[in-house]
């Protein structure tokens, strides 16, 4: 797995049922596996890579991963992202998520939890015996109320969750640079997804005298003008973005979106850009 940038891990009953569908997408350099303590559940999933954990994870502690030599080899050795598709309602799933999350962080991976319940993130954190901030960089809860689902159709819920998870995985994967690293704060990206029924992303590079304006124009997509929050990320080879360029981008955005839109700004460095500037804009509505 040294060549892979990201790994999707399905943990527990719900994840074993939905992860195969979630990964039915054209995302390069992404692998998937599922884990459970029930052999029958693992046999019934179409995902080829499977791991069986002990049913009794009640005594899980910070130090217990020291004996998990085999499990560590499941995770990428190069920088990348691990997505944990997990349902935290039952104790086993919480313990398994904690175990795999720590293993991922031991490989210096960005670790993202995607969970199917509609509750506030803080409510999930109270269920963990171990501080999730140690191994989870961002939690993305599926918020049913924002997706217009007023019925109790479980298959509809599952399909909506699959779409939600796919969007997150695709967005993170598309934002991973050539060295396999992810420069944007996952928490900032979580702010865009939280409460949004639609998330759009645009990314473009340009060079020359008007590089900043050219890049933001190419990155800005249709329907982005209806957003109510946005994340704007600028990258250059040496983090040299002059104030005039920031002003050009700001003026363009003010001409396209409402003044009330909350914008999160960020900047980073990518040595492959040479004289170019890369503009990434992600909007939620």
Give the CATH superfamily of the largest domain: Tubulin/FtsZ, GTPase domain
Task: Please state how the strands of the largest beta sheet are arranged side by side.
Answer: 3-2-1-4-5-6
> What share of residues are in beta strands?
15-25%
Structural class comes to alpha/beta
Rg result? 20 Å
Question: Based on the structure given, which CATH architecture of the largest domain is correct?
Answer: 3-Layer(aba) Sandwich
Number of strands: 10
Largest sheet: 6 strands, parallel
Mean pLDDT: 79
Number of helices: 9
Q: List segments where confidence is low: pLDDT < 50 over at least 5 consecutive residues.
A: 59-67, 145-151
Q: Which overall shape is indicated by the principal axes computed on the Cα atoms?
A: elongated
CATH topology of the largest domain: Rossmann fold
């Amino acid at each position: 797995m040294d060549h892979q940038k990201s790994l999707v891990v399905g943990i527990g009953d719900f994840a074993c049922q939905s992860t195969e569908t979630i990964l039915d997408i054209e995302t390069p350099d992404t692998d998937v596996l599922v884990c459970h303590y029930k052999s029958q559940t693992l046999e019934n999933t179409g995902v080829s890579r499977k791991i069986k954990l002990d049913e009794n994870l009640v005594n899980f502690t910070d130090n217990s991963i020291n004996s998990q030599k085999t499990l560590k080899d499941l995770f990428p050795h190069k920088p990348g992202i691990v997505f944990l598709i997990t349902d935290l309602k039952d104790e086993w799933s919480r313990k398994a998520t904690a175990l795999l999350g720590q293993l991922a962080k031991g490989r210096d991976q960005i670790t993202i939890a995607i969970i199917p319940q509609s509750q506030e993130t803080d409510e999930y954190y109270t269920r963990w015996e171990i501080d999730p901030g140690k191994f989870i960089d961002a939690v993305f809860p599926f918020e049913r109320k924002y997706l217009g689902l007023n019925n109790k159709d479980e298959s509809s819920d599952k399909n909506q969750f699959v779409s939600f998870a796919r969007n997150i995985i695709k967005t993170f994967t598309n934002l991973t640079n050539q060295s396999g690293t992810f420069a944007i704060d996952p928490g900032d990206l979580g702010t865009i997804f939280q409460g949004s029924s639609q998330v759009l992303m645009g990314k473009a590079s340009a060079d020359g005298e008007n590089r900043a304006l050219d890049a933001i124009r190419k990155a800005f997509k249709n329907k982005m003008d209806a957003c109510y929050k946005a994340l704007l990320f600028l990258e250059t080879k040496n983090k040299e973005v002059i104030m005039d360029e920031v002003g050009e981008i700001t003026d363009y955005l003010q001409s396209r979106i409402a003044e009330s839109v909350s914008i999160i700004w960020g900047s980073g460095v990518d040595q492959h850009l040479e004289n170019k500037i890369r503009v990434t804009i992600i909007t939620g509505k």
